[in-house]
Amino acid sequence: MGCDVVAADGAVAGPGSDGAGRAGGVPAGEFGDPGAGRLGEVFTDEPFAEAFGVRGAPGLSPGMLSLVTVLQFAENLTDRQAAAMAVRAIDWKYALGLELTDTGFDHSVLPRFRARLVGNGMVRVVFDRLLEHCVDAGLVAAGGKQRTDSTHVVSAVRDLNRLELAGESVRAALEALSVAAPDWLAAAVDVPEFAHRYGPRVDSWKLPGSKVKRDQLSQVYGQDALRLCRAVWSPDAPAWLREIGAVDIMRQVLVQTYAVRTSSRGKEVVSKREADEDGVPPGHLRLASPYDPDARWSAKGDDLFWLGYKVHLTECCDNTPPEAEAEAEAEAEAEARGRPNLITDVTTTLSTVPDVKATAPIQRQLADRGLPPAEHYLDSGYPSAELIETARSRGTVMVTPVLLDRSAQAMSHAGYDKSAFRIDWKARQVRCPQGNTSTGWHPVRQRERDAIVVEFAKADCRACPVRPECTSARRGNRMLTLYPEHLHTALATARTEQKTKTWKDKYALRAGVEGTINQALDITGIRRARYRGLPKVRLQHAFSATAINVVRLDAHWTEHPLDRSRTSNLTRLSYRLTA
Question: Lower CB count within 10 Å: N or C terminus of the chain?
């Protein structure tokens, strides 16, 4: 995107100042163009009143700074570049309501503004206000079609292996203590020795090549961390030292990386944890950097392995109201086709959180905004039987491929899977393909879910002529695990429906969200975190989604469709012929 999104044609105009960048606000349409105030009421100071005081010298308008941040993300600029654009770019001055002679502000204002938003829980204020404005303007509505997909986000810290992490966590704690309590640190440790070992960053020099020397270095890091922790947690040390973030992270890395034992000679030994012998913490708890405690290692398939987060984007793709009258339906559909596809939700999670865990929060947030979809298009990572049934009870149909039966019989396409058994829910019995009836029906709780375990008699199974095609269990009899009746029926119906051509043609609509992710990547760089920590990354993604919506609104209002020059004419012809 270029600067045309805030050009003088009036697609966007926000709050202004009193000429010196102070709080104030410019009335909509003050520049003479009736369209200049279309988004003026979005970027005002009122939503930020709780986070910004009114006493003392007047400061910069938080509404103006929010618009600056949106424009910054819309053009993928650094803080210094954004502050410079507010001074030298006439289109930015027009949008911000600044005088041409305004000298702007220092770039350090922007990170302080973001910190204030994060500290006061205002991460999504601008995104939500823009979406509310679009709802009031009839650009997005409840009851239509929406689609969701996720992508990985690389953290803003360097990748460290376990050895580097152990050393760098000690270095980070020493750096923090040398500033917070230099006198105490000088009395607690040998500062010259630690400065020699931890002065430069651990990843700034080459680690030993042999395994023996690396193990020795790892032991030194562990001993230093243990010594420092004992000094901080000693009764004579100030209690507030334990509340320093870097110190607590060092303690966690020590616990997760090392095991403390007593040798046969009674000597204390600090050694690196081994997964088979000592155990290691699960991925969602394992720290990966002393500078970003929320970043986690994660993998997707065999090719993608990253340290960071995951972001889920939801956009509308059909805003036709389902309750439209029959005689006005054609007109409503034509109007809906002219509306832009706007992002209606952005959710950022740890990289280890599976997509299925994000489905319910996304749908709940859409409902809280008054934008629950009638049809929600997702890929196979998002649904479960419970989620499908719960969404249906609330008026949302999840158009998503559910996972097929993964049992050995279903995967081999040669045995008897669950579909081959007849279930009598009233009699609480199951009949196998050979006519034998189950002898056990046991309601249980598995993975915090209700389930039913069905068991067949060992005598029937052992004498069965097709037993090899049914089970290979050592116990000799077949057992089935079923969902409760309403969930089992919903899952079976979904699996049958998704095999039809009608469903596949309908599900093709979901693919469009891939373009939204690519647009967010190209324009805002959404796949690379600018900041450290989950709250700040959530703020980044909320402003990124707001910037994408502003870009799309600008294209909609100025009747300039989004650039499609990357697709060749030959490719377009091919798509048209195969449609």
Answer: C
